[in-house]
Amino acid sequence: MTSSDSARARWDRAADERIIAELLPTVLGDPATRVLAISGERVRLRDGGLAWDTVDGWVGPSAAGQVAEWAFLGRDERGAAMLMAVLADEGAPGDDDASVTNESLRVAAPDLDRTEAALAVTAVSLGRWLLEAPFCPACGTRTEVLHAGWSRRCPSCGREHFPRTDPAVIVAITNRHDPDLLLLGSNAAWPDQRYSCFAGFVEAGESLEGAVRREVREEAGVEVGEVRYRASQAWPYPRSLMVGFTAEAVDAGAARPDGEEIVSLRWFHRQEIGDALGGRGDLLLPGPASIAHRLISEWHAAGSP
After folding, report:
1. Spacing of C-alpha 141 from chain mean position
2. CATH numbers and ranges of domains, the chain
3. pLDDT tens profile 73-97
4. Model pTM?
């Protein structure tokens, strides 16, 4: 079994079940159901992983006022239902278990395995939408939650609304004349010595490849040749689908920061990147949970002896 097959075996979204009208009441009454509580962008952790609880701890008087919304995340490898409890209070721990901590997804994600990280991203993305978008954007009426937390319907105008996902591109820029060089930029909001790939949102009517070319031209001043897709990653900051590419700079000497969003950029040698990936030197790279880290580390590995 491949790693991706293993991930699917451990978590089935079971999207076909969402249309069952009484799905949430049914699984809330099943003692085998597992519950993951989400508060804002914070996830609950226990023993280095997500803190799943029994459904008994989240229904009844003890949970009154804490759970703002429920949503069906799918089923685990045993077929047990997996629910998300969206907490009304972002700081609420949910219970008195000293072994449970609340952490920002940004902090928690690097320590989670691939399946649990994907679950956490899904839960935070869906949970924030459920709390932050209760009204119809067309007429302002409060909507009704349907499909076990995955859609909303306006009782006034009849429109149906779904969690919003904004496509964004992220690209690692290589050097046409020296395969051991990689162009990275430093954002104005970052600390000194932190560098990453170039990224930006896709504009209306724009292709992914067009967005790559525009963003690199705007932020780094270079034109690129062929744009090659590598991988994608959902990321709830704010509600993105990051689509990763590599591209080759046509004129490496033209690279210049825009001075607003990107305040510094450099061509880094493969050895410098390797040192940073190994925790050596002053260069700070994106964390291992990010697609930027994957693009950089795969480029480094491809040229290593």
Report:
1. 29
2. 3-132 (no CATH), 134-163 (no CATH), 166-302 (3.90.79.10)
3. 999 999 999 999 999 875 554 456 7
4. 0.84
